[in-house]
Amino acid sequence: MINSTLNTFKIATLIMSFAFFSCKTAKPEVSKTSDSQSQTVVSKDLKWSDKMALTLMKRHPESWQIDDAKAPKWDYVHGLVLYSFQELYKKNPDIRYANYIQGYLDNFIESDGSIKTYELEKYNIDMIVAGRLLFNAYDKTKDEKYLKSLQLLRKQLTEQPRTNSGGFWHKKIYPYQMWLDGLYMGEPFYAQYTVTFENGKNLDDIAHQFEEIQSHATDPKTGLLYHGWDESKQMPWANKETGNSPNFWSRALGWYVMALVDALDYFPKDHPKQKELVGYLNNVSESLAKYQDKSGLWYQVTDKMGKEGNYLEASGSSMFAYAFAKGVNKGYLPSKFKKLANKAFDGLTTQLIKVDADGTITLTQACQVAGLGGTPYRDGSYEYYVNEKKKDNDPKATGPFILAALELNR
């Protein structure tokens, strides 16, 4: 009888040990993802959003390596791509996507809420956008370090230098300048923060940022917005009468329309500024529609269609596809823009996507970087924009591509 009881006890112990071991080994590790990802085969039957996400994970096993980074850096490109992963995870809760995002946060967020490599004193609005990942992390874990990191980025916006009329400078080193890029970098985070933690008290200030760039940088003839506006009119690239830069850059316009559709997520319909922002989105979208190529894509310099040196560019086209599709899905834009978004996505997938033997995909014809001023000096000329380097699967294209694919359910 005693032996029988012992044998039963041993068997039960073995079963429990096996169950514990199975659970323990099945739990995915957050940051050591390279082994499984290097063996990933991307099925042709997957949706485009999953194809691109798995491609990026395979080519960049650690999420900080996005954009071929050689060392971990808190940066806007990682924030953009990983935000698209966050949206993808809502539609397809594959644990690999959540782990990829978490791996980035684990690399940067310290126990006291400080952020490695982040320098508040530079007042670079680009550094705000990766903070969008922190809301979800804090909501799920209630770990105070994420709240402190959110508060740190909010502190930057509180102290961010402003134009005399109240618009955020793009960076401390670019005084009195607002760039279209900056609206995406700062406003969706700001809107989510003020709604989440401040009862929405600063939504008027967020709307004011759009009002400033809309009133100063919009070209009355085309309805498009110039890449940058210098309130002081001191920069050599700035028009001495308007302060605007000389050209329309599709990615800058893409940042702007994405900023509108994402910030609007946090504006209640009865907020007095909501209709105004929806109006801005409609106006610029109508203007952009006039410059969509028959391929469905847009040119690097938006209004110079077919001019020598200009080319159909992936990041701006992806951003417009996303903003148009989300705008329709949210009820901000008329249904015709969904058709234009699908046409753009068709152009991306048929003309600019290359598929490798393992199913991974490469989005070509993306401008790597463009700006104004700085060293070496960037004059904002047509020749400047069309001669900047291109990069395959540049994150400014892949992130919006994933977001567009999700909004279009492609």
TrEMBL record:
PANTHER family: UNSATURATED RHAMNOGALACTURONAN HYDROLASE (EUROFUNG)
Name the UniProt record assigns to this protein: Glycoside hydrolase family 88 protein
Gene3D superfamilies hit by this protein: 1.50.10.10
One function term, GO molecular function aspect: hydrolase activity
Domain of life of the organism encoding this protein: Bacteria
Keywords: Hydrolase
Organism of origin: Flavobacterium calami
